[in-house]
Amino acid sequence: MPRTVIVRLLCLCLFGVLAAGSAHAVDLTIGRATEQNSLDPLFSDLGNDVATAENMFESMIRFDPDRQMQPSLAESWVLVDPLTWDIKLRRNVRFHDGSAFTAEDVAFSLKRARNVPNSPGPLTIFVRYVQSTEVLDSHTIRVRTETPVPLLMELIGRVFIIPAKLGPQVATEDFSAGRAMIGTGQYKFRSSSPGDKVVMGANTDYWGHKPEFGTVTLKFLSNAAARSAALLSGSVDVIEQISPSDIGLFQNRQDVSLYSTTSTRVIYIAMDQGRDESPYIADKDGKPMTVNPLKDRRVRLALSKMINRPAITERVLAGAGEPSGQIVPQGMGGYNPALPAMGFDLAGAKQLLTEAGYPNGFGLTVHGSNNRFPNDSQVTQAIGQMFTRGGLRVNGIEPLPYNVYAPGATQRKYSLFMFSYGSAGTSSLQGLSGVLATFDAATGSGAINRARYSNREFDAAMRDATAEFDSATRNAKLAEAARIAMEDAGILPLYWQKLFWASRKGFVVQPDRGEITSAHFVSVAR
Fold this sequence. Notes:
The chain is an alpha+beta fold and about 525 residues long. Helices cover about 25% and strands about 25% of the residues.
């Protein structure tokens, strides 16, 4: 291929500059299932944080509801050589305080994203390949990488941009207090009531499509029944993560519209593989073990065979899920058709445990969230029951609120836990790199590898795939990397979830495969 590749996206994105404005006569209240961990837009890449931040902050690129990449604060990018990218930024963009957006702000944001303390979903996964940044002029930035990274813009392009004038001393607490909430997005921060709501107002000076609503309120309602009741009563206009048992409430009604899509989010079981003594692993008598059975591939495969995935998707989720055997669904780059969901096989599980030296099983505790995605608590309970039937001693099943649970998983407080990953890019690269690559805090490798899985063969395959510029060849290499990790049972994929939203009459929702629920995907019915 030529040494210089110019990527210029000429299509108008969802919020293109030619779209008509509105009079802001309508307000919007969204009933959200999960509150953000922080208002700091660089604190975490977890979906609940992104869904709040993207109303007020922007990145260089954005993804439409079908997860196709669109330009945002960046208009074009040029590959100067395999290690050098020049990025042209959008002019005539202003922050909410009236200051001009420039390349200095991008350089500052990419640097700060490397190290935000206590993050449950660090952004180092996106900036880890950046060796240096250089401001060429007010709206051109040069990025140099340590190795060739063909999908660089899918990575660094997702980092939210904040003003450089906030300075290196700006802390997450400054965003929580509201004084650092300065973005370029369609809506400006007004107020926040932790545990209750975030309120935003229209940015009338927005560079693109003028805001659809005058005021946007994100109302946090962790209980699914409470969200449904709030919509039917009219106290909120849109809700997300409808419980499968509540779908019937919204069907065949004239005053409510129901929306759904199969997401890119995979729900999986992670298993502590980085310690010989894991906090919730015990022998059959309940005594702590000095040898961690989860480090044995045969044990991990046995656990996978104990899980009846069709029973979970059909009974626990009432069809709102599709059994999974890998990290991305069909249609995304890196999908491997030779990796079906693991079959339910108790006899095979028993044989593997015996081969591994645990004919009578061992003890464990199953951790999960109780308000992150539909029926997550029930799925956690079902997993625990299946392990019990498989001959293990389940000492506890502990679903926790997500804002407590996610930091705990990142801090490695659990031994076996249910988590999820939603692929926001066009391929499995980000998911495989973040969830399964060997953890290295210095380089950002395996930034969300909370179980500390490590496989040298997988790491080598990922390095090879990451440096491949030809998309077809890269996807084939990603599929091979997936095979290595899945056959090693690095994680145990359970299912891809099906998502449901509902809106009151007068509002329209564009279902987002990345499961983001923000004002961007809601419009006034016309």
